[in-house]
Amino acid sequence: MPAPTSSRTLWKGAISFGLVHIPVTLHSATAENRMKFNLLDKQTMAPVGNKQVNKATGESMAREEIVKGFEVEKDQYVVLTPDEIKAALPKSTQTIAIESFVEREQIPTVFFNKPYYVTPAGTGGRKPFALLRETLERTNKVGIARVVIATRQHLAALIPDGNGLVLNLLRWEDEVRDVAGLAWPGDDVAVSAAELKMAEQLVAAMAGEWQPDLFHDEFREKLMALVEEKARAGGMQQVAPLPGEEVAPSAEVIDLTELLRRSLKGNAAAPAPANKAPARRASAAAANDEAAPLRKAAARKTTSSARASTKPASRRKSG
Questions:
Q1: Mean pLDDT of successive 10-residue segments in the chain (319 residues)?
Q2: For a designed S-S bond to 114, which of 11, 79, 128, 169 qualifies (C-beta 3.0 to 4.6 A apart)?
């Protein structure tokens, strides 16, 4: 099953080529589903973070004590200030500026990096958007453009895809490694006609339609099954909050819901005078519950409220 559609707009601007200006928005076309683990202290279950330390002394470094340096030669660095780096950042034009149109097959696979779905912004951009998409489809061309996203300039290919367009960020030429020196077989390896025929027959026998739902990340599925099995067996452990941090909101929701449920159950059982004993038992159970301090505090508040509501009745009984 594909990841759910993302309606969140990541970038808003326009496609521009010649005098054509098409307002568009970008949406993420991929979702990251890799297993992510947090580092925890084995004994206390407290989160373990990554510290920036001086590799020579092993001492922790404050942010203001750290500078950014570029290694020009071995162990020789040039330090750049934040202002110098900021001045070099590309200016955002909010434009996918198409500079040329090329055959789709001319772009090597290794250049493709990250795709985004492109949609027209507003009703006014729908017709020129459809016109560009249809033109690219009929001519088997893609638009090669420059675009600035989150302060970074990218090379990109604007590609027709069904009823829409996909903007696939491309790697720059110096990011793609040369294949010279790789041990790829060339003319020195001969393939006979009989071998080629049998190989073609095997490919034909295994040929089929592209069905991505038939393939799964088995490693992730096995780990998730193991996590769910351990969770059902009571294998979950509470992460210890750091000093000064509040308890996670999810814990508050669960505890308050339980307290409200108990209160509603007690109030629905009978009128207030006949319900004093159950209310006291519910308050005592909440106060004696073995849980986090926040639950105890919430229980104490409930107990105080219960006492306040029954105080007049107690005076009538004693009189």
A1: 70 83 83 73 78 84 86 86 85 88 94 93 87 94 93 93 94 90 85 92 91 83 84 76 58 49 61 45 42 44 43 42
A2: 169
